[in-house]
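Treating backbone geometry as a discrete language has practical consequences that deserve illustration. No coordinates are needed to read the tokens, only the vocabulary itself. For completeness, the protein is quoted in full, as a sequence line and a line of structure tokens:
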Amino acid sequence: MEYVLEDRILKIKIDSLFNETVQDFFDEFIPSKKIQHLLIQNKWIKMDGNPVKREDDIVGLNLEINIYPEEYHYEETKLKADVVYEDELMVIVNKPKGVLVHSDGTDDNTLAKWVESYYVDKPYVCVQPLHRLDRETTGIVVFSKSMIFQPLLDKLLSEKQIRRYYLGFVKGKIEADKSFVINKPIGKDRHDASKRVIFKGGQEAMTRVRSYGYSKKDNYSILRCSLDTGRTHQIRVHLASEKLPILNDPLYGEESKLCIRMGLIADEVEFYHPLKQEIMNVDIDLPNDLSKLYFEVLK
């Protein structure tokens, strides 16, 4: 697909017979009926400069979509997000430890506020996180930038076309290259609102795990984890249930001097980019303390 962003207008040359009409394009790229209606009603979508109807033929023509049609009030913060990837639809940032992705009503110093501050000079960018990480978990968080395409990104996430991968540094021994699946339902702990537990009446939860190796000296293993579901504290609860508690996990593990943070990091995201129409990977470097543990095992 050929496209270019000029100011706020995304210009797309339609050369696919699978998108013969405006409605065909909507069905593939704009799953929200509400957004479809707004695009037509507010003339946020045009074809070669002219307003369009759903039934209009588009093959061989140029669609022009205002993908940033509204403006927002963003406040500048002292800290701004650590951006590791950005394009027309999304921005991917590296979350530090101890920060919430969005406010829980008690703390407004959030990653979302930092990302908003990053766009304080572009207040038309619609900043919304597609998912979240626990406060103490570090690593990759994906934000949508366009209200027009956010429903599509949400859909790709739910269909697992956006996959997040984690490294877990855990107490215990799992030999290198051993793989297993943890399929245990998770629900709220009736005795502690901040925790989750394994129980039969909980929500389905599945975590895929592969070991990178084991440190005999310090009795820890490094596990590559991916989620088939997205339950609160899922990796932490699942690994603890297998007697593989994450280092420095304040809820399900125990204190460790091997690292200065909780040993769980979302270090990679793989996704299908709907405009580039290709699979992309974005990853981040490990912080120094986790990097030291990583290379101790893999050396």
The mean pLDDT is 94. Helices lie at 22-29, 33-41, 111-118, 150-158, 234-241, 288-298. The first strand starts at residue 2 and ends at 6. The radius of gyration is 22 Å.
